[in-house]
């Protein structure tokens, strides 16, 4: 066993709290954590961080390459959103000196096309015997019309290299297809790009628009039921650990989860094992399922090649995936769970205020400064440009959607 602390580079471009919780968990389990993030990101409020780099909005790929070059002693990279994974894939092909570290962090080059493309990944999953709804690549509104002409009643239109539900539209009829297609393709036009760059301060905006996957669409058969998620930790094709939850409540019909419950499902676990082994994955990877109404059978609908908000959570008898990763890097046994969450409903912090859910609110009580940073609006939303824009645009719906008949 080496006495040197394993060094992890955590990279995030989105204003999500999961990256801060992951950084804190890795630090608590004996890792050194360096960070590449936008300025003002809440992850920078985590105490004990190592080196911190800032994403440059007009040279985001150069920012990542510079962080990797300056931190040659990194043992692993932990990407926290899909755009970062796309940049790692690009650097893996362009910079041979970084290939070993990137492959160790996400998987070999031969698997990278499956990490970024929804249709190729789900096609591969189907060939492995995993239950997948019919999914096909589409190139225009006429392909969407043809889908309904074949007798399909509902569909889900998805754009690659999107996350958090922003690139997903549920089509309840053929008449909704043209508007949904236009809404998703409009996101690559100059107006939305300027909003993302200048108002939302997304540092990957200008880099992402040049990527082929930014305009790739797929259409998927709609499966009615309850969402469920699995986050797996892989190591060169071996599944080290996983955690699965059923989603009780989401932010909007296709948004992120706000309330979850831990679950065990062998079909979901087997899907994780098969994909991990076939693609020889490393690092954190998430699987999104729908538990079909009436049967409870899990259908794999999406793959996320990154850490999610489940990575830091521990339950009785199940250490967190962050603890398992730290033990793997340090060459020590996985420790017993620290501060395990109680069984039952878990309200994800900071999406739901404390006291509004019958269950546990996932708050780090020993980190008051971090709690304050995660509770306040994201840094871009505190700028005058965002306030002016918000005053002029119509309010976006922010309703929560229940996925169980349960009073919260």
In short:
By secondary structure, the protein is α+β, with helices and mostly antiparallel strands. The protein has helices spanning 18-28, 60-70, 82-94, 96-106, 112-116, 118-127, 141-149, 177-186, 190-199, 205-208, 266-279, 321-330, 368-375, 384-392, and strands at residues 7-11, 32-37, 52-54, 76-79, 135-138, 155-159, 168-171, 217-221, 225-235, 238-251, 257-263, 283-292, 298-304, 345-348, 360-362, 400-402.
Give a written overview of the molecule.
- It contains 14 helices and 16 strands.
- The protein has 408 residues and is an alpha+beta fold.
- The protein has 3 domains: 7-107, Rossmann fold, CATH 3.40.50.20; 116-221, Dna Ligase, domain 1, CATH 3.30.1490; 224-380, 2-Layer Sandwich (D-amino Acid Aminotransferase, Chain A, domain 1), CATH 3.30.470.20.
- The strands form 3 sheets. Strands 9, 10, 11, 12, 13, 14, 15 and 16 form an 8-stranded mixed sheet that branches.
- Helix 3 packs antiparallel against helix 4 (96-106).
- The termini are far apart.
- The mean pLDDT is 87.
């Amino acid at each position: 066993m080496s006495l040197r602390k394993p060094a992890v580079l955590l990279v995030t471009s989105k204003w999500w709290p999961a990256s801060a919780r992951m950084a804190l968990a890795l630090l608590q389990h004996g890792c050194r954590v360096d960070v590449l993030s936008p300025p003002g990101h809440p992850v920078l409020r985590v105490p004990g961080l190592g080196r911190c780099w800032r994403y440059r909005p007009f040279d985001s790929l150069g920012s990542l390459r510079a962080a990797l070059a300056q931190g040659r002693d990194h043992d692993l990279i932990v990407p926290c959103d899909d755009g970062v994974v796309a940049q790692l894939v690009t650097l893996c092909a362009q910079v041979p000196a970084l290939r070993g570290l990137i492959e160790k962090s996400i998987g070999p080059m031969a698997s990278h096309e499956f990490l970024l493309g929804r249709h190729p990944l789900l096609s591969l999953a189907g060939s492995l015997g995993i239950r997948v709804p019919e999914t096909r690549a589409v190139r225009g509104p006429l392909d969407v019309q043809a889908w309904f002409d074949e007798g399909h009643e509902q569909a889900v239109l998805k754009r690659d290299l999107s996350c958090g539900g922003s690139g997903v539209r549920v089509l309840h009829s053929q008449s909704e297809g043209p508007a949904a297609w236009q809404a998703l393709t409009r996101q690559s036009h100059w107006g939305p790009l300027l909003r993302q760059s200048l108002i939302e301060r997304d540092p990957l905006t200008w880099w992402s628009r040049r990527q082929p996957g930014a305009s790739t669409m797929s259409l998927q058969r709609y499966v009615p039921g309850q969402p469920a998620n699995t986050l797996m930790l892989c190591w060169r094709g071996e599944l080290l650990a996983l955690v699965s939850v059923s989603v009780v409540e989401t932010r909007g019909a296709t948004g992120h989860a706000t309330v979850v419950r831990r679950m065990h499902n062998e079909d979901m676990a087997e899907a994780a094992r098969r994909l991990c082994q076939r693609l020889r994955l490393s690092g954190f990877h998430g699987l999104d399922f729908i538990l079909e109404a009436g049967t409870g059978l899990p259908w794999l609908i999406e793959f996320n090649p990154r850490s999610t908000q489940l990575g830091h959570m521990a339950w009785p008898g199940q250490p967190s995936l962050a603890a398992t990763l730290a033990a793997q890097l340090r060459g020590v046994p996985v420790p017993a769970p620290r501060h395990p969450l109680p069984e039952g409903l878990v309200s994800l912090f900071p999406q739901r205020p404390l006291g509004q859910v019958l269950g546990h609110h996932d708050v780090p009580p020993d980190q008051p400064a971090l709690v304050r940073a995660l509770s306040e609006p994201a840094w871009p939303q505190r700028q005058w440009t965002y306030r002016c824009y918000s005053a002029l645009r119509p309010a976006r719906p922010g309703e929560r959607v229940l996925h169980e008949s349960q009073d919260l």
